[in-house]
Amino acid sequence: MKILVCIKQVPDMESKFKVAASGKWYDTADLAWRMNEYDEYAVEQAVQVKEQVGDADLTVLCIGGERVKETMKKALAMGCDRGVHVADDKAAEKEPFEIAGIIAEFARDKQFDLIFTGMQSQDRGSAQVGVLTAEMLGIPSISTIVQFAYADGRIETRRELEGGVKSIVKAAAPALVTCQLGLNTPRYPTLPNIMKAKKKELLSLPVADLLKVDARQETGKMYFPVKKGGGLVLEGEIGQLVDQLIQILKEKTGVLA
Amino acid sequence: MQTLPKGGSFLFETTAPRNIFTPEDFDDEHKLIAETVTHFLAEYVFSRMEEIDAKKEGLMRELLVEAGKLGLLGADIPEQYDGTETDEICTTIIAEKVGATGSFAIAHGGHTGIGNLPIVYFGNEAQKAAYLPAIVTADKISAYALTEPGSGSDALSATSKATLSTDGKHYILNGSKTFISNAGIADIFIVYAKIDGDKFSAFIVDGHSEGLTTGAEEHKMGLKGSSTRSVFFDNVNVPVENLLYEAGKGHVVAFNILNIGRHKIAANAVGAAKLALDESARYANERKQFKVSIARFGLIKEKLAEMAIRTFAAESAVYRTGGLLNDMMHSLDRSGPDGGRITAKGIEEYALECSMEKVFASEAEAFVVDEGVQIHGGYGYIAEYPIERLYRDARVRRIFEGTNEINRNLISTTLIRRAAKRALPLMDAVSSVRSRLTTGIPVRKDAGDLVQATKDAFLFTLGIATDTFGDELLKQQEILGRLADMALLAYAMESAWCRAQKAVMNGQSGAKHKENMANAFIYTTVEKVILAAKEALANLAAGDELVKMQANVAMIFQYTPVDIIALRREIAGEISEAGKYIA
Question: Residue limits of the Acyl-CoA dehydrogenase/oxidase C-terminal domain (chain B) (predicted)?
Fold first, then answer.
């Protein structure tokens, strides 16, 4: 059995973000980096499947500069067998269709039975890469899963719907799933596994070899949300309050226009 | 690879920033290990601090077992005994991180450091195979039993006795040990006793042996969750194969283990100091008086800055030493059955540095936790706030693993002895300083120059002290203490300086902040060095002779002060913005 898990390195979300000089992404200087939270669920699930079936080969793929290797080593230490690093210093400038294109191009002739990705990335948050990849590979995808089981070439998942409702979705492998919070508790790597991961294969491929699709979206501008004014608490008699409220609505909004 | 510097050689050699290890040099594995330890402590230890400090039955063992599952107990143990031989940087990182937990750090350190290293370094094949795998999993918890009621700093005066049984199969152990960490939960004790009353030796003693009992739990000032008891041996039979290393060589085991023990204590202190600063920086941001956060007050800024500066210096010294120990271990062929002993011998080269960092880091921590309480105001005195625990837990670090006074003596006497044996050309360096004083020493232009000035002052004072007292100098504790202060402050200053310079050279982010901290540390600390030199010299000479010496000290330290207040404001600004220690 062959499994692929795709991960992304993102900044620690507690970092102080600044818009980059280009105005199209955040400034990457002085940030601490870690594995995208949803990808940790993906890695954990992939490792659990591998542990379940025993005879499986688990590849972790990550696109980015040299820096992402640290995050890849974490995935290797968690239990992935080999790493494929798609070397791309400009990964942050690529939009989801291109990222999916790169992954699909890599995966196309590899016969992966299962592909795991995070539900979305914590920085761009498009939630498109997983499903686009599946589409490009012509395999089914199930997004936002919170439960996963594999048996005899079939998967059974629970995926999150709106309003707390969940649906049970089944598919035959090969298939791709995108992983959501609640799916599992990612393990943190043990010391022996961290040291063993050092010896695992970590192959670097130039992004140019895999990027065969053109971008379909363009980032216009990145900016912080305009600071909203503080809330206003009106106090006094009901009648007066109503008058005050109407006055404010007339002056400051268009709802009574 | 560069050739390894000799222990203590920094005092007369110039250290290139690229040649010291700094936390900025962590590789991916180091970072991952740090992350794993942080997660583990947050989930299992910090979340249960109250239960831990209430000594909840069975909890400490449970935590050690969990730590074992992550491999956090086997970092010093070879793979063939189920450990993960990492490197000295990894073990330093682990010690630093656990340091912040107080009681757990002691249980962890008692078990993994001083508790198992005697077997790792000095055990024979059978002993290693019998004990180490169980230590890795915390199946057996270990403890180190050296101190006795009547022998603390004077460890070799121990009165515990081991007598060979008539059939030659056992040593019969009698005596008692006191202040033994992990005593209440230990399955294995490393016990020191004198065979036939004179051959000081180390033994591995089964904690469940007949005749072995432990006293009541000590009620300690801090580290309340760690078990500390007396241990009594009443005709305890110890199989002869449990003699560790050689009969009469217990001191070799004890002292070599203490070197690494001191390094780990220093790392513990850094971890605790960082947490104290994190708590204080956050509190200062949140606490409002006169309608502004107190972090905006000048005197609070000075505190936050100075806490960060000393933590930075201690951290720099600890990882520099970790780097030295690591390079040493990698330079040795440790593959044979004698590998452990070879390692211990190698480590001894840096005994000085281990003592220096232990003294410096434990005193830096003491300052940091004290100011931390002060920043918390009245709340700092209330047990609800972590700073109260950190304050209490810190105190013993200046006492155990050799009191800071014993370590100061050790630093100076080791230097003097190595100089006498010509293992270190310290006296040549003294001559060189003297000749430079006759031709004139130029004004010191920057912090780097002031590190050199500190070394010059040490060498100058050492020269006078040796001239005055000769061999008797080894008995002049007040002078030895001041020499040790100058040496260890030079070490800390140089570590901070080289780390900042390395960051600047590599264009690292935060290099300016590091440089500010190094500068502030050096410009303030140099005044302590001057005081130590002056006090020592005033004891060594009088009259015109003393006047001349003081003129020499003045020449060594010709420099223009920097605006330390402005520097501290800038440093505090970084700390407050981050709401925690950053370097």
Answer: 248-414
pLDDT at B221 over 70: yes
- Give the active site residues of B: 401
Q: Domain containing A163 — which CATH number?
A: 3.40.50.620
Q: Which residue blocks in B377-446 are alpha helix, DSSP H?
A: 386-394, 404-420, 426-439
Nearest to B71 among A29, A74, A192 (CB): A192
| Interface contact flag, A70 B31, Cβ < 8 Å | yes
Mean pLDDT, residues B460-464: 98
Read off the pLDDT band of B389 (50, 70, 90): very high
In a domain, B409, yes or no: no
Predicted confidence (pLDDT) at residue B31 exceeds the cutoff of 70: yes
pLDDT band at B2 (very low <50, low <70, confident <90, very high): low
Structural domain boundaries, residue A254: 231-257
Residue B1: per-residue pLDDT: 45
Over range B17-46, report the average pLDDT: 96
Count of H helices and E strands in chain B?
A: 19, 10
**Residue B223 to residues B383, B391, B404, Cα–Cα distance (Å):** 13, 10, 19
**Residue A46 C-alpha, separation from nearest chain B C-alpha, in angstroms:** 20
User: Is residue A221 situated within a structural domain?
Assistant: no
Domain hosting B477: range is 415-578
Give yes or no: residues A120 and A20 share one domain: yes
Q: At what angle do helices B103-112 and B59-69 cross, to 10 degrees?
A: 60
Q: What is the pLDDT of residues B106-125, one digit of tens each?
A: 999 999 988 899 999 999 99
For A174-202, b where at least 16 C-beta lie within 10 A, e where not — what string?
bbbbbbbeebbebbbbbbbbbbebeebeb
- The residue in chain B having the minimum alpha-carbon distance to the alpha carbon of residue A187 is B36
Q: A194: which chain B residues are within 8 Å (Cβ-Cβ)?
A: 29, 32-33, 36
Query: Can you spell out the DSSP letters for A101-140?
Result: HHHHHHHTTT--SEEEEESS-SSS----HHHHHHHHHT--
- pLDDT (mean) for B196-224: 96
Residues 87-146, chain B, touching A (beta carbon < 8 A): 90
Same domain, B64 and B194: no
Rounded to 5 degrees, what angle do the CA atoms B279, B281, B282 make? Answer: 65
Q: Does residue B340 have a pLDDT over 90? A: no
Residues of chain B positioned with their CB less than 8 A from the CB of A80: none
CB B298 within 8 A of CB B243: no
Asked if A194 lies within 8 A of B33 by C-beta distance, the reply is yes
Task: Among B20-29, B151-160, B400-409, name the one with the lowest average pLDDT.
Answer: B151-160
Q: How many CB atoms lie within 10 A of CB B471?
A: 9
Arithmetic mean of pLDDT over chain B: 95
Can you read off the two tokens belonging to residue B171?
A: 């040593």
B443 and B512 part of one domain = yes
| Residue A68, helix vs strand vs coil | helix
Total residues found in chain B within this entry = 583
Mean pLDDT throughout A76-100? Answer: 97
| B1 found inside a domain | no
Comparing C-alpha atoms, which of B520, B512, B499 is closest to residue B565?
B520
Residue B364 has pLDDT above 70, yes or no: yes
Of A69, A188, A191, the CB nearest to B75: A191
* pLDDT beyond 80 at B337: no
Is 0.90 surpassed by the pTM of this model?
A: yes
Q: For position A14, what pLDDT does the model report?
A: 86
C-beta atoms of A74 and B35 within 8 A: yes
Residue that the structure tokens 């120059």 belong to: B449
pLDDT higher than threshold 80 for residue A229 = no
Dihedral over Cα of B481, B487, B493, B499: its sign: negative
Closest-CA distance of chain A to residue B81, Å: 13
pLDDT(B517) > 50: yes
Strand A154-160 and strand A57-64: pairing?
unpaired
